[in-house]
Design brief:
This protein is of the alpha/beta class. It has a domain at 7-120 and 244-259: Enolase-like, domain 1. The protein has helices at 7-21, 66-73, 75-79, 84-88, 96-116, 149-154, 202-208, 227-230, 245-254, 275-287, and strands at 28-32, 46-51, 56-60, 138-142, 158-162, 170-171, 176-178, 189-193, 214-218, 236-242, 262-268. A hairpin with a 4-residue loop joins strand 6 (170-171) and strand 7 (176-178). Helix 1 crosses helix 5. The longest helix is centred in the middle third of the chain and has 21 residues, at 96-116.
Length: 288
């Protein structure tokens, strides 16, 4: 693994630059922010960047004071009309607000790329079904996927959850929470939130989980092209795609749940055609 915590971000942005080279990208049309951001409420933890063609990318917005600054700065007005690639480049910025919006733009461009290449996202697959916990297995989580805990414990597997907040550390009923990434070593299966793509912890987590034969990143922020994750050992990327733009925008503006206007999907490493093949599809269509 690279010693540079931003290595993945640089590689992913390189993919976005390559997408932009295939043809003009639509400008930014809107930024969708929840009325309030509540940790533990999935849909209020994410913002959306929308492009003029309706493509929407999501990003976690609870890093530092990101949400408060976004609400105060009214970015929707300031960013409307900005070239999508320019906003996406903010993913490399040290400022958490620019990183958050940049990552959302990266995901929006990626969603457009999938659509333009004719790549059908698999919304039918169960993103956690292949976890399939077995007696005696050691399973790791990066971030707590609460609904899965009983299923894992009842199956007879051992579970260790990696968290950043010290107040959460300790033993639970049949499982434990740790602050030490090294405890992921020896886990045969590891499930992580996609927040690691935003907070510079991706490569450290993957290094600790290098023995895992099943390694999934799941969450609304998993909307990017997955190639540079798959090359790092990730076997499954789960994201969220918006299927009803108007319903999503209205729900976010009202502070309501927007899940009904979206679909979860998975991209499995062994079934993904690869960035180059998808890019070639777009290039061949443009050449006609």
């Amino acid at each position: 693994m690279s010693a540079n915590p931003r290595a993945f971000a640089h590689e992913l942005l390189g993919r976005i630059e390559a997408i932009a080279a295939l043809g003009p990208l639509p400008a930014v049309a809107a930024v969708h922010l929840p009325l309030a951001a509540d940790e533990g409420s999935r849909e209020s933890e994410f913002c959306g960047v929308e492009l003029e063609d309706g493509s929407i990318g999501l990003s976690f917005l609870l890093l530092g004071d990101t949400f408060a600054r976004l609400r105060g700065d009214s970015p929707a007005r300031a960013l409307r009309g900005m070239p999508a690639l320019e906003l996406a480049r903010g993913y490399l910025d040290d400022d958490p607000v620019r990183r958050t919006l940049g990552f959302a733009a990266v995901n929006a461009i990626s969603q457009r790329f999938f659509r333009e290449a004719g790549y059908a996202l698999d919304t039918a697959a169960d993103s956690i079904g292949s976890l399939d916990p077995q007696p005696g297995e050691r399973i790791g989580m990066v971030g707590l996927f609460g609904p899965l805990v009983p299923r894992i414990v009842e199956a007879g597997a051992s579970l260790v959850v990696l968290e950043l907040q010290s107040r959460l550390a300790g033993e639970r009923d049949g499982w434990r929470v740790t602050l030490d990434p090294a405890e992921l070593a020896g886990c045969e299966k590891v499930l992580s939130t996609t927040t690691v793509l935003l907070n510079d912890t991706l490569d450290a987590v993957l290094a600790s989980a290098s023995a895992a034969r099943w390694l999934a990143l799941l969450g609304p922020g998993g909307g990017c092209v997955p190639d540079d994750l798959f090359s790092r050992g990730v076997t499954l990327l789960g994201g969220t795609t918006i299927v009803d733009r108007d319903g999503f925008a209205d729900a976010v503006a009202r502070g309501e749940a927007w899940g009904r206007y979206a679909r979860k999907y998975v991209v499995a490493r062994d079934r993904y055609p690869g960035f180059e093949r998808l890019a070639a599809r777009i290039a061949s269509r443009s050449a006609r």
